[in-house]
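Forwarding the complex inputs:
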Amino acid sequence: MENNDRTIIEVRDLEARYGETTILKDVNIDVRAGEILAVIGGSGCGKTTLLKHMVGLSRPYGGHITIDGIDITNGDEKSFARALRKIGILFQGGALFSSMTIAENVALPLRAFTDLPPDAVGTLVRMKLCSVDLGGYEHHLPSELSGGMIKRAALARSLALNPEILFLDEPTAGLDPVISAEIEALIMRINHQFRTTMIIITHSLDIIYEVAHRVVMLDKSAKGIIAQGDPKELRRSSPNAVVRQFFNRQANLSKRSTWQP
Amino acid sequence: MSESYALKTGDNGTVAIQLIGRIDHHGAARLLKQLQGEVKQREPKQVTVDLNRVTFFDDFGLLVLFQLRDHLNKQEVPFRLVQPPPKVAEILARTSFDDPDMCSPLPHAHRDNTVVRLGAATIQFYNSLNFVISFLGSVILAMLHVIRHPRDLRVGDTIVLMQKVGVDALPIVAMISFLLGLIMAFVSSMQLEQFGASIFVARLVALAMVSELGPIMTAIVVAGRSGSAFAAEIGTMRISDEIDALFTMGFSPTLFLAVPRILAAMIMVPLLTLFSDIFAIAGGMVISVSMMNLTVATYIDQTLKALTLFELMWGLMKSVVFAALIAWVGCLRGFQVRGGSSEVGNAATSAVVSGIFLIILFDSIFAVIRSYW
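Prediction (whole assembly, two chains):
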């Protein structure tokens, strides 16, 4: 963490519902500029719902969310568009446009939001793709790539405009350990170089312990946050038994997976 | 304040550029243009770039340097970077700035020549023909299997599909047919009235609808509504690996997905056709009674005289065949989907186009058979 402790995302008393079901309530989060925040919790606890609300894809039932001082929940289209320019999102499945090549996918935001000449856009696309180790795949369609490659291409697209804030939904899920480690290193490098704020939804212990500065843990039965803070400390000394159990059970599970019949 | 720069010209033709402040995507394009303009105007012998007053530098900054160096190299002007600050140096090192390959523009997509593409298209055509034939075979086998083992039919699915294909399509089929009956009666009455033969309007509407237009119109509506839906649904299942899941769980995708759809269409389309015939005759009757002073009884009497049971059955038999074709080609296009979501759209379009083509083709074949009967 460098000099400033400016809050870049503020979630205040967020309440989220699907129909009659309350998914989240009384959620308050302050994300500081330049920090890597991991959002963790069991399946169905509302992690993706929280993300969707934070980027304005879903309207909250109650509460407010501000991105860099811009309230994205008040329905003002113009300020919402301004907030969107500050963020990049990596969706769980990549969400690459299937009718475009990888290069066209990455070039799309560059063409739309900068005045760079076409050859400069081409060079930049190459640099972006090289940074996720996809050099040489520029003209492939997403359907011609493996799952890990799609995720890396999607990461390159979300980084196209070097956004101030990056939302990553399960960035390493389904990837092999080598590529996962590379993506983790890339995330840390981007954070270090550009002080990009990152909100990562994850189940990966590596990300929780090695990459994240802070974690927020959601719980299904509490319908909200049950713990936030330094992951190692939470694991050791959280007053909440559910939190300790979560961290420890995850550790147990990863041990159990080595069991051989 | 975003980025800017300061410029100093030395005596020996050296231009020293000092970049100042933030260089990010907001101003990179403008800065690049300005620098290229300066270089063009001053025609330097050498250019040095100093990054010591840069406060933010990312790959957009790199791009500016790349492009500027590229621009100078073309004019054979040496380019030199003054020792950059550590953070910038780290970024430069990581992207191997000194490697001239790094700033090369995006290579163009490799395009095969005409002969290669023609060959590839031929092979693809052959493969898709192969697929069409094997899919036809697998549908026929699955149908035979269902006849021998009726318990293997997914009855629940079939009933839901019957509702979607038939019941849900009834309002639109009824309305189109009614209007078609009105139009036919109206246009033909204007001609027949000149010969005092308005009474034959009833026969014309009945015969044209029951043997030709009823089956065709209904089939076209079903191709547009359900054929495309089958293709889109199965195509989406294809790209989300659901078909592979079915296959690996030991189900036959044809039996599971295609047979209920084809059966539902074969049962419901003839019923829709029957409704279509009735609504068109009603439409014709409205015009005849209101504009040509025919009574309802005369109209019905004339209609019944014109129609034979054979005529009705012939029309319904055609609609069974059309139904099988529409549903089959809809499923086929769905199973043929490879790649991404845009392919699903193509499959839906192709299902409708191929469906209508097959309807017209088979209707012509039926007409030929009828003429040699």
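Residues 10 and 16 of chain B are 8 Å apart (CA to CA).
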